[in-house]
Design goal:
Length: 401
C-alpha cells in the first residue's frame, strides 16, 4: 500500500510517500513559508535534494504543488494519483475520545476542532492539512493518527491531577501525554530486537529532542508519561521549562505585571535550555558553550539530564521489571554524553552501559544495544520513525486490522 503521510504546521507542510510493505520512502519533502514566497524542498529517487520556489497562498495550493510533483514525469514517483491508496495525518490532540487511529469523517473533524483548545498550535494546522487533502485528493481515504492515542491506556492514578474533580468534569483537565506515535514505534522495534513478546514487554522510552517526553510502558502499553495536560509538563526542553512549582507562575505574573499570554510565552517559548543558558534551544550549541567554560550553559545541560533521570528512576519503581531503557529522537539518538549521564549510577541496580559503544560515531541512525554484557536491563538506541508508524497505522485502519 502506498500511503501519503502529511504533517502540517501553521505555515508548513511536511510529507512522505511510503510503501508500507517494505517501509520504502518513495519521496519526501517540505514546503515552508506558506502564505507568501514559499520554499519547496524534496528528494528525488536517487536521494538528490531539489529545491524550488513558489508563491502559495494556503495549504491547499501547497498540497497541489506536492501532488503535481508526485505525478511529474520528470521524477516518476507515481504514474497517477490513484496509486496513492490512503493519506495518514499526524494529529497532535485527540483528547479522551480517540484511543486509536481512525478514518476521518465529519465527526472526527468536529472532535479535532474541539480539542484545538488544548493544542492551539497544532490541531488547527493539522485540520488545514485534512481539508486541503479533501479538496486536492477528494477520492482518497484519510486517517487521523493521534499523538495522544498511545497514552489512553494509562490508569486513572497516572492521568488524574489532585485538583478538585469538578475541573475534570467541566474541562477534562488530566494528563494526556504526547509523542505517542514515537513511543509506540520504538517500543515495538525494541521488543522485536530483543525478541520479547510485546504483551509482556516493559520499557522506559526517552523521546529527547527540542520537545521531550519519557514514558513508562508496561506490557506494551503506556502506563505513565511525563508530558501532561499540555506538552509543557515534564523534563527540561529546548524552550519549555518542564515541571516547576506552579506558584512560580503567580509570583512572576505579580512581580513582572504579566498577563496570561505573556507568562505562557515565558514558560513555553523563553525557558528551558534557551532561557537558562541565554544561548540557544539547540543542545549542540549549549554543549559547545559549556565546553568553552560557560557556566550557565553547563548548568542548563545538567538540568536537562537531571530532569530525565528523575523520570527514569520513578518509572523503574513504577514498572518493577524494566526490560529496556530506550533513547530516541534528536538528542536521544545523537548525544552520547546525555545518554551516559542519564543512566549513570544505575550500575548499583545491575544496569550498565558500554560507554565505548555509546561513543562510536558509527551507531548514529542505527538500532544499537548500548549495554554491557550481563546488564539486567538492556539500554538501547532506537531511531524513531514517526512517519512510517503513521503510514502503518493508516494501512491497519484502512484494512480493518
Amino acid at each position: 500500500m502506498k500511503v501519503l503521510v502529511i504533517n502540517c504546521g501553521s505555515s508548513s507542510l511536511k510529507y512522505q510517500l511510503i510503501t508500507t510493505e517494505d517501509g520504502n520512502v518513495i519521496t519526501k519533502g517540505l514546503i515552508e513559508k506558506i502564505g507568501g514566497n514559499s520554499e519547496f524542498c524534496f528528494y528525488g529517487k536517487n536521494g538528490e535534494k531539489i529545491t524550488q520556489s513558489h508563491k502559495l497562498k494556503d495549504h491547499a495550493e501547497a498540497l497541489g504543488v506536492v501532488v503535481s510533483n508526485l505525478v511529474d514525469p520528470a521524477y516518476k514517483f507515481v504514474g497517477r494519483l490513484e496509486e496513492i491508496d490512503a493519506i495518514g495525518h499526524r494529529v497532535v490532540h485527540g483528547g479522551e475520545e480517540f484511543s486509536k487511529s481512525v478514518i476521518i469523517d465529519d465527526r472526527v473533524i468536529s472532535s479535532i476542532e474541539k480539542y484545538a483548545e488544548l493544542a492551539p498550535l497544532h490541531n488547527p494546522p493539522n485540520l488545514l492539512g485534512i481539508h486541503s487533502c479533501s479538496k486536492v485528493l477528494p477520492g482518497t481515504k484519510q486517517v487521523a493518527v493521534f499523538d495522544t492515542a498511545f497514552h489512553q491506556t494509562m490508569p486513572e492514578s497516572s492521568y488524574f491531577y489532585a485538583i478538585p474533580y469538578e475541573y475534570y468534569d467541566k474541562y477534562k483537565i488530566r494528563r494526556y501525554g504526547f509523542h505517542g506515535t514515537s513511543h509506540r514505534y520504538v517500543t515495538i522495534k525494541a521488543a522485536e530486537f530483543l525478541k520479547k513478546d510485546i504483551e509482556s514487554f516493559n520499557c522506559i522510552t526517552c523521546h529527547l529532542g527540542n520537545g521531550s517526553s519519557i514514558t513508562a510502558v508496561k506490557n506494551g502499553k503506556s502506563a505513565d508519561t511525563s508530558m501532561g495536560f499540555t506538552p509543557l509538563e515534564g523534563v527540561v526542553m529546548g524552550t519549555r521549562c518542564g515541571t516547576i512549582d506552579p506558584n512560580i507562575v503567580y509570583f512572576l505574573m505579580n512581580k513582572e505585571n504579566m498577563n496570561t499570554a505573556q507568562i505562557d510565552q515565558v514558560l513555553n517559548k523563553k525557558s528551558g535550555l534557551a532561557g537558562f543558558s541565554g544561548i540557544s534551544n539547540d543542545l549542540r550549541e549549549v554543549t559547545a558553550a559549556a565546553k568553552d567554560g560557560n557556566r550557565r550553559a553547563a548548568i542548563a545541560r545538567d538540568l536537562l539530564v537531571k530532569s530525565i533521570r528523575r523520570y527514569i528512576g520513578a518509572y523503574m519503581v513504577e514498572l518493577g521489571r524494566v526490560d529496556s531503557i530506550i533513547f530516541t529522537a534528536g538528542i536521544g539518538e545523537n548525544d552520547a554524553y546525555v545518554r551516559e549521564k542519564c543512566v549513570e549510577g544505575l550500575e548499583n541496580f545491575g544496569i550498565a552501559m558500554n560507554t565505548e559503544i555509546n561513543r562510536l560515531p558509527s551507531i548514529r541512525g542505527q538500532l544499537t544495544d548500548l549495554s554491557l554484557d550481563g546488564s539486567k536491563t538492556r539500554i538501547l538506541l532506537v531511531p524513531t520513525n514517526e512517519e512510517y508508524m503513521i503510514a502503518m497505522e493508516t494501512a491497519w485502519v484502512i484494512n480493518g486490522k
